[in-house]
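Weekly puzzle thread! Below is a chain. First person to post its structure in token form gets bragging rights.
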Amino acid sequence: MYDTIDVQSLIHQLNTIRNALLTAERKYTPLIRKVQPHYVESARNLVHYLALRTFDLRQIQWQLSSLGLSSIGHSERYTLINLQNILYLLQLLGGENREDIQTTGTSFSLDHPKSKKRLDENTVQIFGPERFSGHTRIMVTLPSEAVEDYELIRDLVQTGMAVARINCAHDDPEAWRKMIGHLDRARRETGNTCLLYMDLEGPKLRTGALPNRISRKGKEKRGFILLRKGDLLHLVREGSPGAFPEFDPDGLLLLPGKISVTLPSIFDDVQIDQPIWFDDGKIGGTIESVQPDLIEVRITAASDEGSRLYAEKGINLPATHLRLPALSDEDIQNLELIVQHADMVGYSFVRTPDDVKLLQRELKRLGREDIGIILKIETQETFENLPLLLLTAMRSPKVGAMIARGDLAVELGFLRIAEVQEQILWLCEAAHVPTIWATQILENLVKTGLATRAEISDAVLSVRAECAMLNKGPHILDAVKMLVEIDQRMALHQWKKQSALRPLNVAKLFFSPLRSVQDTAD
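Winning reply:
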């Protein structure tokens, strides 16, 4: 019956993999021992999962499925135990003597139910209790209007916002205090739990100021540089005034536009032929020359009619190693306010384990080692260092991770973001670390009041994370309501990437006593 599958060969392959997992754990024991006690088994499991994923498992997966055995495709949370269970069943199938290999060579105890419970516990610790039957909390970025609009925050808390987000890259401490005051009042009046998340700005590279434009009607309007494919753009150091491009009557570029950058250190780091992106990837270019006070960029990606580059827009340099401080002086100053009010702090542009240690030292200095740390995964370097970042962050009591798909997509390229966001979900699940699915969820609905089919599908994927983040917009309440409904529906069908196998109404209808086989045949 199993003549096409060599069971003994499978046992040998899986034993080889199992030994590799145990070897990896022994190698990284010094790191594992430094995490918080409640994270020890999670750290062990993360190392096991990483070791597992160094193997090409495609053929093994197919063979196990052909034998009707549970494959290793859903074992993120309990990698070693799952592998040992499969080995035990294969030994029985191969006619060998019963041998309880689960007790051989390891004291690991996180099986399927225990590992799910561990992830659920970690989720409650950092994102608070469930508001609805689904597992996904909803985070909402508070707009500047929330400073004066208490009713907006109250309605968000009432509708389903479980975590309020204040982005410290915008507004100022006085505005943040007013938002926090509104949130406190809303929690008291509604009786609902809503935690507070505050983002550190980090060393965000942005475009500098531009003069306003005068419209044909004589009114001042926000200035922008119109960029077309093939145009040159000059980047200058902060403090130098921006300038608009000049064109001849036929539309040919006579003088490139000029705009400053907020981090002058990039002049020492960028190199010729490296890519550069502006405004979340809406405009792209290649660096053509680098001078002490001038970087020339040739625009390679823009809309057909030209794209507008405004002040205070993000700049990404995915191929450049930027020597930037993990925490700016402003970040450290803002931390003093954040630790007084927030339940968790978002660590923007964290890149290395040393960056994590720096934040942990600052939080210890401020007496808030208990605050939740959210690692924002928004650069290629951060993604590549994610396992070590997680193991380092797990020295703190509460850890989460944000899949910041906006910057990450620009850094990695839009073709790679789909596979990378999956990998982040897998790695965090292996560490039992809750995740936030962020950037552009239901964005069209938030901004225009109408959702697209594509973003509904994306929202369905988002509820596999423990938290989904919505950005600000005039229709944010409608977006919260829709995401709550999507979450409640999908929670009946799927948990993470595992199907829940709820009974399907379409299947029941097929076997309905009101429908006969003869009717169908006719």
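Puzzle host: Confirmed. Bonus trivia for everyone else. The mean pLDDT is 89.
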